Structures are given as structure tokens and as C-alpha cells.
Amino acid sequence: MTYKACLFDLDGVLVDTAIYHFQAWKNLGTKFGYALTEEQNELLKGVSRVESLNRILTWANYSATEDQKSTWLIEKNENYLDLISNMNPSEILPGVLDFLNQIKQAGYKIALGSASKNAEIILSKTGLIEWFDLIIDGNKVTKSKPDPEVFLKGASGLGILPTECIVFEDAQAGVEAAKAGNMRAIGIGDVEMLRQADKVIPNFVGIQASELLQF
């Protein structure tokens, strides 16, 4: 198989904003007396803001009105934006820039496939935006991972078949989305958590694209 494009999730793959999401959700939890755990926060990776709130409310066994949900979603995002306002290139995860340079030099198209509605802000603040041919984020999709919509739109936007795409994901839902879209999935992180991926690497440090992308 000849691959032509690499599609990346954002949080936990290129930069680590999970800590900021965790803090913002924890802060919101004080509204209804709930303390989100780190383990639960892992289950929110790759999930939309609305679905994340619904999951937290379910865990808290709290019935919120639609007005409360709307207000809290705005508050959470404003808190999150405040937390990420000082992000800079130092927060790019180790090995990422070298890997992006390798695949760019090799002629791969590069796209983002993220549930985050703040993806462009983060990419701009960290200086990563210049690497991307296409950005598909939470503002351009209606379905959360594991639905493959975000990645299928990425492939379509690049003018490339799904089978010609390789997806890089750190979340189980993201890996499932890639496989549902008939794409190759490379997991970033723990092998046990990402067992459905075609291959798993701990991070991009020392990774040679020529070896990783040959199947």
C-alpha cells in the first residue's frame, strides 16, 4: 500500500493540552459538587465538549437542565482558553517537529483531525500551524470520535482516498475512528490502551518516518 497523507490528532499527539482540559473540567465540577479523576479524564480524550460534559454528569449522577449545560459549556471553554493563553512552542511534544519535517520532506500531505474547537488557536500559539495542509477540527464536524467523520473529511479535503491515509492517535476513540474510516492507525502511548491500532509507539522521539510508514 502506498500512503500519501498523515492525519494527526492534536491533544496528546502533537501537544499535551490534556492537563488544561482536566483542570477546566475539574473547575466546572465544583458547580455540582463533583471531583473528576485523572482516570476519567483519560476517557474524555478525543471526545467532543458536549459529549464530555454529558459523560461527567452521568458519572456524577447529576441531572442538569439544557440551560445549565449551555452555560457550563461556555464557562468551561472560557476557563480552558484562559489556561492555554500562554502556550508556546516549548509545549510541542518531544520528537514531533523532527517527524513532521521528515514526512513533509518525503512528500506526505499533513492534516489535523481533532475534536477540539480551539485547534487553530493552539496550533498558532505553538507555531505548528505552518506544517498543515488542512485543519479539520470540532468546528467542522458534527460527530465525535469514534465516528470517522473528522478523518474522512480530512482525506476528502486533501483529495486522497481513506486507504491512503495514516492516522496518529493517542486515544482509543481516535484509533477506532481511524479504523472505521478504513485508515491505518498508529497509536501514540500505551500498547494496552491502544491495542486496536496497527502499531503503537511511545512517542516520536528518534522515530524514523521511512521505517514507521512502510507497511
UniProtKB/TrEMBL annotation:
- Top-rank lineage group of the source organism: Bacteria
Q: Which UniProt keywords are given for this protein, alphabetically ordered?
A: Carbohydrate metabolism, Isomerase, Magnesium, Metal-binding, Phosphoprotein
Q: What class of enzyme is it?
A: isomerase
Q: Which GO terms describe its molecular function?
A: beta-phosphoglucomutase activity
Q: Looking at the keywords, is Protein transport present?
A: no
Q: Which residues form a coiled coil?
A: none
Kindly list the cofactors needed: Mg(2+)
CDD domains, sorted: HAD_BPGM (cd02598)
**What EC number(s) would the UniProt record show?**
5.4.2.6
Report which reactions are catalysed by this protein.
beta-D-glucose 1-phosphate = beta-D-glucose 6-phosphate
Q: Mind telling me which SUPFAM superfamilies this protein's record contains? A: HAD-like (SSF56784)
Q: Gene3D superfamilies in the record, alphabetically?
A: HAD superfamily/HAD-like, Putative phosphatase, domain 2
Protein family: Belongs to the HAD-like hydrolase superfamily. CbbY/CbbZ/Gph/YieH family.
Q: Which PANTHER family match?
A: 6-PHOSPHOGLUCONATE PHOSPHATASE, HEXITOL PHOSPHATASE B
What name has this protein been given in UniProt? Answer: Beta-phosphoglucomutase
